[in-house]
Design a protein that fits this description.
By secondary structure, the chain is mainly α. The chain is built from three helices and no strands. About 75% of the residues lie in helices and about 0% in strands. The radius of gyration is 19 Å and the shape is elongated.
């Protein structure tokens, strides 16, 4: 198969048919404003952040498993196709990692603001 057709097929499966694979990116978490949040709101946000981290772990494991399964089930184990799969998996994991880092930074900032109010 021509490399362009392979790339289009992979892009179609990954982006056009999201229901075709089981890996679900974690839902975003709302972080309250630390300047005005109640203790209850901050505690709830903390639980939501921890839940998100667990969902992130499941998501990255799913992406890795999915990529491994695709690699094993490939009828045509063309090096460029496998490389493209690996790059797509890395992009998904990198995007999820960036989202986790952003969430942690936003939560830490809100926590610092919240704690500074009670000093």
């Amino acid at each position: 198969m021509h490399i362009f057709a392979r790339i289009l097929a992979v892009i179609f499966v990954v982006f056009v048919c999201p229901h075709a694979h089981a890996c679900n990116f974690p839902d975003p978490v709302s972080i309250p404003d630390g300047n005005t949040a109640t203790e209850r709101e901050m505690a709830g946000a903390g639980r939501a952040v921890l839940k998100y981290f667990g969902q992130y772990e499941k998501y990255t494991a799913c992406v890795e498993s999915e990529t491994s399964a695709l690699r094993k089930s490939a009828v045509d184990s063309d090096i460029s196709t496998n490389r493209l799969r690996e790059e797509l998996a890395a992009s998904k994991i990198n995007a999820a990692s960036a989202a986790v880092e952003d969430l942690a930074a936003r939560f830490n900032e809100a926590t610092e603001k919240f704690e500074s109010r009670s000093k």
